[in-house]
Amino acid sequence: MEVDMIQKPALAVEPPDANFNPDLTPETGEQYLQKVMYERGKCPVVVCAEKPQSLHQQKTLSGLAALPTDEVKNVAHRALIPTREWETMQNQKFAELRDTITSYRGSAQYKENLQRTHVFLNFEDRKHLHEYCANNLPYVSILLSIPQRNLEILLEYLHEWLQDSDQASSVASQQQDEPSDPELCDVAAALTPSVTSKEELHRGDGYRRDWIPQWIYAILACLIKPLEPYIHSVLRDIAKTCIALRNELKQEDEAKVLPLNLLISIISKHFNQCDLGDNIA
């Protein structure tokens, strides 16, 4: 008897009869509940999911770029895979660079230099950002004046440009802006790893445009942790793209593979994406 009382409806509503019109907009609470009852009666007892698409057809959207959801397999020639010693050295340099940037952010010079090094970049204009990055080196003095959210947006754009294999137009040469703070000159040099010269940057030589991995490297050095989950997804996609690009290189392309190996190593070691690394401890 007590169970019957508990299960007794709190609000008695007559079920919809043969004259019920589900297309009419409910005007009362009773009519609304009758429509709910009508729609519930139309729901099938068993629902079968549609057959999933092939992995090669399935796409996932990460940031601004679509990538296949299947994992990228490393099929590069063994000569193109970095040694553990090389990775250790590069990650140590990257860690020292991040420490230098963190210390500089806490210094009295930081806010003072922000006024002198600020550059206006329109982050809603992808073409404007593309032209600026292609024609300017990623100095720390510039990157530190950019809010983190905008750095994350730029990182997504750079990933998209890295995937674009048709960027064949030459980069217009122009005078580079030197960092205004002497202490930042050494840091700016560290942001452009010795994988290419400034002249090569302007000629547009190399496997993919060398300025793209340089800017990615620079942004990674300036990102403040912890990061949003979707940024980790973007970083994974960048590393996977680098692996895919490395797979296309030949054994003799050791010079071209250096920036790709550098990004794969840093993302896997410093941003907790160890499953994408080449030398997993």
UniProtKB/TrEMBL annotation:
Keywords for the protein's UniProt record, in alphabetical order: Cytoplasm, mRNA processing, mRNA splicing
GO terms for biological process, alphabetical: spliceosomal complex assembly; spliceosomal snRNP assembly
InterPro entries: GEMIN2, Gemin2/Brr1
Protein name in the entry: Gem-associated protein 2
Domain of life: Eukaryota
Primary site of residence: cytoplasm
Subcellular location(s) per record: Cytoplasm
Family: Belongs to the gemin-2 family.
UniProt GO cellular component terms: SMN complex; spliceosomal complex
Keyword Glycosyltransferase included in the entry's annotation: no
UniProt keyword Cytoplasm present: yes
Lineage: Eukaryota, Metazoa, Ecdysozoa, Arthropoda, Hexapoda
